Amino acid sequence: ATGTNAARRQRAFTRVNQIKQAGVTLTEMLVSVVVMVAVVGFVYFMKSQVYGPLLGWMEASTVSTHISKIENVYAGAANYTGLTTASMATPSIVQNKYLPGGGVINNRFNGTVTLGIVTINSPNDAMTYTDGNVRSDSCTTLVNQLSDDADRITVAGTIVKPLNGVVNPGTLKTQCDSANNVSIMFERMKRA
């Protein structure tokens, strides 16, 4: 009988230990919550601090490619006469994902791209590339990335880089921060 009682006690003790170890301890749960909060905080930080400038950099690459392709179209011409958004809204100039149809060009900010011509030294000697609805947190990166390619840059209606000058960082920051989304116009004179 003693052996039977000892076996019963051993089984009862084993069941109690199994029940105790079946659940998650409070410490384990708190550590899991802290790790999840840290991950969410990191993701939020990356989205708020890195995502906007990254979009600006990517848009700068797209704008630079579009301008280069437009220049190739007008390489043999004396000026940009005839340049319009509709005339350049083709897959040979702009990626299909930015062509909703009807002669319209969109950008990665769901804004509209407008192409045009201006006169700086001689009639129609410069193109304009206006990028609409640019996120304010992408604006500075976009302008700085294209500052060497553009002869003049206007942000939210104010010139931030005068003709053949340099970008004014104070004016650029003020204009980029003037609204959640801004319009940026790049002017580029015809190269020989």
Mean pLDDT: 90
The rounded Rg comes to 30 Å
- Trace the largest sheet across and list its strands: 1-2-3-6-4-5
SSE topology string: HHHEEEHEEHE
Number of strands: 6
Distance separating the two termini: 109 Å
Helix percent reads: 40-55%
Q: Label the structural class.
A: alpha+beta
The poorly predicted ranges are: none
Number of helices: 5
Query: What is the beta-strand fraction?
Result: 15-25%
Largest sheet: 6 strands, antiparallel
Instruction: Give the oligomeric state.
Output: single chain
Mass-distribution shape: elongated
Concise description?
By secondary structure, the protein is α+β, with helices and mostly antiparallel strands.
Care to describe what's here?
With 192 residues, this protein is an alpha+beta fold. It starts with a helix and ends with a strand. 48% of the residues lie in helices and 19% in strands. The protein contains 5 helices and 6 strands, in the order H-H-H-E-E-E-H-E-E-H-E. It has helices at 2-22, 26-73, 85-88, 136-146, 169-176, and strands at 105-106, 112-118, 126-135, 152-155, 158-161, 181-189. The protein is elongated, with a radius of gyration of 30 Å. It has a 6-stranded antiparallel β-sheet with strand order 1-2-3-6-4-5. The mean pLDDT is 90.
